């Protein structure tokens, strides 16, 4: 029973990290239809921003979260406004453009701070552990779980209860009709992409104490993020949450029985098979022809 509880908690921990990384991509891909291959580099920027704020400004991780979100969101706004907005209705070109942006970001980081591994310190208040059903669990991992759920709640409210969210949903339904009502699609798209990029940067900052920070750290995260979004359904925020924790529990359980490599292989194969029979994802309603 102790091992079962431990594996469930481990799966929730993995799922919370997957949700943090995938939430921003879910907004960009699901709402705008942009396959953002630079999403992992936005995660990497957030991790490096956490390191810079701590090393050069003396700010702790918790105190730097809001500035990190704003910095990466501003960078995302620039990318959308001056690169992606010029490629409307050209999905293959946006794939190439975001791939190129990702490579440029990696090389820029290497030139500015080098390729050496960097490390971000855990917040002292969250460096201990707590008992969950008699099992010691890292306080920071519990904190990540709470933050991931809170960010999902904030994103859901933004998309469903704010003017920006309603305008975005109107543009998704019919851009020309939305424009006839005075909705500026370019401005809404820029804000949406900026928010998704900011979430990615926030995810990078939050996972940086658990992983070493390097220029190519985002490569693995972008694969994980796309797996979560595809499994949950491209336009389903709730599906993103469910798929993140399903993959977290599945990965944690298989890794316990075998190892991490086998777990990733089996999970990836399972998603490929799922896409073959249900390409719209698990949590998107089928549309009758």
From TrEMBL:
<keyword id="KW-1133">Transmembrane helix</keyword>
<feature type="transmembrane region" description="Helical">
    <location>
        <begin position="12"/>
        <end position="35"/>
    </location>
</feature>
<keyword id="KW-0472">Membrane</keyword>
<feature type="transmembrane region" description="Helical">
    <location>
        <begin position="226"/>
        <end position="250"/>
    </location>
</feature>
<keyword id="KW-0029">Amino-acid transport</keyword>
<keyword id="KW-1003">Cell membrane</keyword>
<comment type="similarity">
    <text>Belongs to the binding-protein-dependent transport system permease family. LivHM subfamily.</text>
</comment>
<protein>
    <submittedName>
        <fullName>Urea ABC transporter permease subunit UrtB</fullName>
    </submittedName>
</protein>
<dbReference type="InterPro" id="IPR001851">
    <property type="entry name" value="ABC_transp_permease"/>
</dbReference>
<dbReference type="InterPro" id="IPR017779">
    <property type="entry name" value="ABC_UrtB_bac"/>
</dbReference>
<feature type="transmembrane region" description="Helical">
    <location>
        <begin position="188"/>
        <end position="206"/>
    </location>
</feature>
<dbReference type="Pfam" id="PF02653">
    <property type="entry name" value="BPD_transp_2"/>
</dbReference>
<keyword id="KW-0813">Transport</keyword>
<feature type="transmembrane region" description="Helical">
    <location>
        <begin position="133"/>
        <end position="159"/>
    </location>
</feature>
<dbReference type="InterPro" id="IPR052157">
    <property type="entry name" value="BCAA_transport_permease"/>
</dbReference>
<keyword id="KW-0812">Transmembrane</keyword>
<feature type="transmembrane region" description="Helical">
    <location>
        <begin position="55"/>
        <end position="79"/>
    </location>
</feature>
